[in-house]
């Protein structure tokens, strides 16, 4: 694991040195201007990692996380654009080559930041003869923490309330780095208190919710205080459906069949499982509708090509006879406060008789 980390960091540092040198050459900077360029570029490249390595004031952590996240997205674009431009100008180039790169970065950042702030609604219809017709609202991957705060949560609440749902279901990663990283829990709690549904709000936890330090219990307690029923390898048997919430696969957990063993197979069973793995196991366990998040649909192009290769379904809806799986791209972001080639969304799911 340590070797893999060092290898990744070596690649990251090496590619940044290459891109910084090429841009420096095209800009034609020398002397003090060149030193300032190198220092500024180095700070941007390190910004995302500094809050995780150094004890810093909260405002400095938030600023560096925001700037560093955007830089990581820019790094992906530079990895594509700089070598292409290098090939076009055949190693020579000039200020115009750098201007073209910077113009691309500006458009990329503005479009990505806008896409990360807007929340759209994606609608699906699922046919089931089990139980009454109803509407479910699915939300995943808010990643509330240093970057995502009250504004984005409020947008999510407004989008969900417009659906007039019977149940609101949260498919994990509500928090970005555990409940301790939430800047204003009271303000976020007030947002959650505005959620409206006829049957309540239910959630499973994701791999981020415990802050990677075993804080799942604290995360569940805070969500419960906000009016969310957290299911951790548990089932809620309600009047018109059965909701199963799984512990995230990053932890030890029960098999899907164990969680559904005591449920009525004649009633609609919905399972919340943060990561879209083990779809076949869920189907064999009698789950009718599996709801997931986690993938963000890659969040930043071309990462969606990677998620598409990793998962049986990384986004959208998968129908297999009497089994349906839906994966949301999420209502927030991780790392870069940007989306390119993906959207922030809430999902409306209408259960209809066939």
Walk me through this protein's architecture.
The protein contains eleven helices and twelve strands. The protein folds into two domains: about 1-115, no CATH class; about 120-350, Purple Acid Phosphatase, chain A, domain 2 (4-Layer Sandwich), CATH 3.60.21.10. The strands form two sheets. It has a six-stranded mixed β-sheet with strand order 1-12-2-3-4-5. The mean pLDDT is about 95. With about 350 residues, the protein is α/β, with parallel strands linked by helices. Helix content is about 45%, strand content about 20%. The longest helix has about 30 residues, at about 60-90.
How is this structure best summarized?
This protein is 43% helix and 18% strand. It is α/β, with parallel strands linked by helices.
CATH architecture of the largest domain: 4-Layer Sandwich
Order of helices and strands: HHHHHEEHEHEHEEEHEHEHEEE
Helix content: 40-55%
At the first level of CATH, what is the class of the largest domain? Alpha Beta
Topology of helices and strands:
Elements: H1 2-27, H2 31-47, H3 50-53, H4 58-89, H5 95-117, E1 119-127, E2 134-139, H6 150-161, E3 167-171, H7 185-193, E4 201-204, H8 216-225, E5 228-230, E6 234-237, E7 242-245, H9 256-260, E8 269-272, H10 279-284, E9 289-292, H11 303-310, E10 316-320, E11 323-327, E12 344-352
Parallel strand pairs: 1-12, 2-3, 3-4, 4-5, 7-8, 8-9, 9-11
Antiparallel strand pairs: 2-12, 6-7, 10-11
Helix pairs in contact: 1-2, 1-4, 2-4, 4-5, 6-7
């Amino acid at each position: 694991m340590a070797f893999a980390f060092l290898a990744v960091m070596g690649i990251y540092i090496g590619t940044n040195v290459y891109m910084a040198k090429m841009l420096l050459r095209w800009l034609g900077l020398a002397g003090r201007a060149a030193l300032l360029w190198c220092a500024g570029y180095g700070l941007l490249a390190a910004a995302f990692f500094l809050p995780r390595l150094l004890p810093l004031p909260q405002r400095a952590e938030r600023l560096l996380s925001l700037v560093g996240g955007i830089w990581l997205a820019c790094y992906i674009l530079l990895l594509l654009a700089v070598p292409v431009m290098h090939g076009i100008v055949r190693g020579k180039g000039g200020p115009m080559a750098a201007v073209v790169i910077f113009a691309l970065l500006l458009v990329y950042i503005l479009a990505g930041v806008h896409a990360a702030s807007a929340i759209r609604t994606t609608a699906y219809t699922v046919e089931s003869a089990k139980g009454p017709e109803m509407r479910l609202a699915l939300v995943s991957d808010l990643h509330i923490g240093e970057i995502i705060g009250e504004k984005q949560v409020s947008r999510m609440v407004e989008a969900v309330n417009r659906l007039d749902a019977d149940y609101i279901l949260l498919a994990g990663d509500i928090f970005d780095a555990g409940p301790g990283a939430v800047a204003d829990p009271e303000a976020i709690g007030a947002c959650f208190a505005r959620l409206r549904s006829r049957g309540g709000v239910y959630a499973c936890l994701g791999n981020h919710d415990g802050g990677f330090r075993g804080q799942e219990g604290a995360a569940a307690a805070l969500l419960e205080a906000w009016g969310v029923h957290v299911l951790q390898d548990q089932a809620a048997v309600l009047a018109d459906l059965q909701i199963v919430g799984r512990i995230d696969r990053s932890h030890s957990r029960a098999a899907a069949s164990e969680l559904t063993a005591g449920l009525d197979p004649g009633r609609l069973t919905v399972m919340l499982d943060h990561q879209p793995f083990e779809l076949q196991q869920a189907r064999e366990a009698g789950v009718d509708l599996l709801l997931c998040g986690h993938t963000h649909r890659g969040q930043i192009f071309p990462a969606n090509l990677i998620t598409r290769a990793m998962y049986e379904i990384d986004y959208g809806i998968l129908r297999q006879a009497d089994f349906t799986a839906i994966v949301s791209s999420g209502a927030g972001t991780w790392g870069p406060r940007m989306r390119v080639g993906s959207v922030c969304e809430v999902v409306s799911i209408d259960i209809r008789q066939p």
